[in-house]
Amino acid sequence: MNQIVRSKTDRMIGGVCGGIAHALRIDPVFVRLFFVLLAIGEGIGVLLYLVLWLVIPEESTPAQMNFGERARDMGEEFRQAASNPHPHTALYVGGALILLGAYYLLRTFDFPWLQWINQSTILAFLLIVAGIVLLLRFRK
User: Fold this and answer.
1) Which of 38, 31, 37 lies closest to 14, judged by CA?
2) Count of domains in the chain?
3) Domain for residue 7, yes or no?
4) Measured distance CA(92)–CA(90) in Å, rounded
5) Residue 10, domain member (yes or no)
6) Which of 19, 20, 102, 112 could disulfide-pair with 7, CB 3.0 to 4.6 Å?
């Protein structure tokens, strides 16, 4: 496995997902979906992303930067990402909102045959599917 660094080229916000995907040699979409699922399912995805943004150094950046310098850089990168978002950001956010809306809409109908569906089962199912896809891709 390669060293994990935040990507300068494959980034939507801070380059965390792009860097992790590059190190694992997988498509960054899977890593981004993982963080979205963590944000929706257990609610820790955003916090985990922010912590990794602070901890993982950016490509070609000295790893010896102190915490204050990294926090300042993170703030500047966030301002840049907010003012000039990645073209696919709306696609990912829109897709996540549609899935979340569909989930809550189905829950309001209170169908007896849908009682087994909850955030934990959806997250577990999607994690299993993502794991299978990763294993199949690794095998190739």
Assistant:
1) 31
2) 1
3) no
4) 6
5) no
6) 19
Residue 2: pLDDT over 70: no
In this predicted model, what pLDDT tens digit does every residue of 78-107 receive, in sequence order? 777 777 777 777 777 777 778 778 877 877
Cα–Cα distance between 30 and 24 in angstroms, integer? Answer: 11
Tell whether 5 is covered by a domain.
no
- With tokens 């696919």, the residue in question is 88
11 lies in some domain: no
Could you report the per-residue pLDDT of 23-73, keeping only the tens digit for each? Answer: 888 888 888 888 877 777 667 878 888 888 888 888 776 656 666 777 777
> How many angstroms separate the CA atoms of 129 and 107, rounded?
23
Determine the structural domain holding residue 121 and report its residue range.
Answer: 16-139
Residue labelled with tokens 């390669």: 2
CB 32 within 8 A of CB 12: yes
**Three-class secondary structure of residue 3 per DSSP:** coil
User: What is the maximal distance between C-alpha atoms in the chain?
Assistant: 56
The DSSP 8-state label assigned to residue 87 in this structure reads T
Question: HEC string of 7-60?
Answer: CCCCCCCCCHHHHHHHHHCCCHHHHHHHHHHHHHHCCCHHHHHHHHHHHCCECC
